[in-house]
User: Which sequence fits this backbone?
């Protein structure tokens, strides 16, 4: 049963990433399905924060779908599936100072979470689990808000997640994060090109 859950989670996750690169709001539906399945797998694999993170992703998928729908209407865009070449909401950039605060927040939250995680759960990698969780939450929010640099955060998150799931024996999920990493490279390039054209 776990193998099928893993297959479906990976397939939906790839669908999410490919649609997100194209800034198609339906990406969030695929992301929600993938996250729900990954939450179940992580819970069974002694990765409690990853399970919690995936559960939060389900909620973020609802927010992302809504945000991209509202932004598209506000920006006067048509449905990207049926009309026009311009997709999704307007891409924004953060100033360097915002990234400094974001990274400091990730580090602080990780330092606070990891000891509690180590003491109260059977987490295999509490520090890395906490850091990946905190960075993932921020990167997901940045994606929903169409912040260009979200892809740079995903590079780090995906690389760490490859390791985290790989050492837990979830090779398909680790492989999903390899695919996510590659898609993030293309996502950065695609969004940067679109940002320059807006």
Assistant:
């Amino acid at each position: 049963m776990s193998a099928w859950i893993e297959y479906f989670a990976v397939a939906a996750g790839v669908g999410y990433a490919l649609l997100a690169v194209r800034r198609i709001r339906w990406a969030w539906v695929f992301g929600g399905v993938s996250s729900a399945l990954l939450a179940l797998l992580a819970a069974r694999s002694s990765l409690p924060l990853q399970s919690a993170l995936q559960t939060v992703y389900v909620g973020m998928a609802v927010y992302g779908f809504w945000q991209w729908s509202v932004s598209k209407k506000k920006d006067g865009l048509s449905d990207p599936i049926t009309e026009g070449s311009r997709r999704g909401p307007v891409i924004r950039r953060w100033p360097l100072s915002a990234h400094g605060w974001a990274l400091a927040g990730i580090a602080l939250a990780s330092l606070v979470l990891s000891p509690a995680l180590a003491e109260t759960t059977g987490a295999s990698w509490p520090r890395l689990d906490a850091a990946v969780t905190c960075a993932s939450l921020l990167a997901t929010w940045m994606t929903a808000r169409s912040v260009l640099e979200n892809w740079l955060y995903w590079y780090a998150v995906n690389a760490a997640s490859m390791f985290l799931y790989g050492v837990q024996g979830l090779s398909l999920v680790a492989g999903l994060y390899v695919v996510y990493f590659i898609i993030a490279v293309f996502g950065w390039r695609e969004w940067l090109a679109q940002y320059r054209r807006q």
Observations:
- The first helix runs from residue 2 to 21.
- The CA atoms of residues 28 and 61 lie 5 Å apart.
